[in-house]
Here is the input.
Amino acid sequence: MVNELLIQLQSFDTPPTSVRIQGALVDLVNRWLPPDRRYRKPVAAPANILVIGATNRAGDLDAALLRPGRFDRTITVDLPSRAGRREILDYYLARKAHSYELDDPAVRDTLAATTYGYSPVMLEHLLDESLVWALRRGAHHLNWDDIQKAKMTNELGLPQPVTYAERERETIATHESGHATVAWLVTPTRKLEVLSIIKRNSALGLLAHSEPEERWTHTRTEIEALIRIAMGGMVAEELFFGETSSGVGGDLQAATEAAAQMVGSFGMAGSLISLDAMKAGNVNIVAKVLGDETCRERVDSILNDARDEVRAILAERAYLVEALRDALLEHEELIGTDISDVLEQAQADWDSQVLDLRDELAIETGVVTPAPSA
Here is the structure.
């Protein structure tokens, strides 16, 4: 196939049959004529053809196709940026029945931000799936909740109708509430999108969160914050049940990968040596870092420090985890501002209780005299 393609590419410079026949006849006649009376051979007009190819597997192309004179210029068409996704969403939403809330520019900006990595066809499919969710609830237009459910369906699969044991259900709710509470406390600008204890594929529960703006780089502080968020579930289980479950496996994997990149790739853990510079076949950075004793100790130190910090945070704010856990046990799924509303209300109630307790202690000790009621 490659050889035939190369032949066809070169055929554009080959004169057509009619021109070649005329040229042969002219050569034949010119053989009998003196040099000053010979005819000029016909010249074919340039083909003036630009050949464009498209592929999503550029790494598999034959090198012969890419040499100068053939496909010698490569133009990368990447996934759309946040602004591009916003324009694509505007285009498709204009053609689909939707609620008035989705006409709010801020809501559309949020949707564009949370669909990082989506291609145009994936955005169209997301809205189509949202309409399916709207029909399931008997509505004739999609809304924000439908989009969030469609997004989880696309990324994690459909909800699975499983029944948790009561203790296991409480453990999962506590675990996910620990993640959300730490995210809310250590990264206040981060958007909490979905908090769920509904099983999807291998995920028993989940917290979906995103950056307020599209980012291409992260600072050490931001990566450490993500590690703390990953530790939130495990620490919450320890605080409320005295031990952890097997559900912390995925969190520790994510935290270890982030810490390994800090040590071996980003120069954020004391050494500026990049283990990525080692050409060790297909061995990934985590294996390289954990294979070195000193680097392994640094990763372990990062993870332990993050766990200790999260333990101190949640021990002081356990009431936030409890409030979020109870809301999850009641509703099974919280979306968007529902998560922050529960946390903000729990914090307000706690602050009110603390003030009331201080007033009572002050009255009992005679430090202050309560003002007469109106």
